[in-house]
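Troubleshooting: if your tokenizer reports a length mismatch, compare your output against this known-good record of 206 residues.
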Amino acid sequence: QVYLVDEVQKVYKSQGVDINDKHIETIIRQMMKKVRVEQKGDTDYLPGALVDRYELAAENKRVKSEKGKPAEFEEVILGITKASLATDSFLSAASFQETTKVLTDAALEGKTDRLRGLKENVIIGKLIPAATGLKRYRRLEIEPAEPIRRQTPEELGLLDEGELAADLGLTADGELEGFGFGTDDDAKAFGKEVADLSTSDGDDKK
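Known-good structure output:
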């Protein structure tokens, strides 16, 4: 895989294009995820079968633990199209090419898509199994290490009731200053002022 990355980079760098290795490594990893079984050993695989390399590694590990003979395999490089169609997810494969063929084969074989990859989860609108979308983070509850102390109004710089009322132009009893009557005497005085105004208006008209 390192050789392939270097050779691909040579082509791009010769044209003055700078690409990070990780992008090419991701593609090559997908192209080399399958291996061809040469000798089945004590496994259940058939010679010539294309098997996922991690699946075969797990099977060989199981066989070795039982003192059996592991399978022998050969590295295989798949093309981009074939690598995409050889995925375990039929939803991912169907979204790439040969949609009818992929879905027909999946139906005939009774395949089940476990939705373990990114592409198939995006297709059906689910969270991708990465970062905070991983199963172990979905029900994670976060609590503070120590109780949070509630700050006082003075610490927060808030106004007390009197200061707030003064800023809003309110009296001590909650009424707007200049409106309403505090006592009956105030009401009588206001009535007298209105009467005097009415009298003066009448005199002016005469």
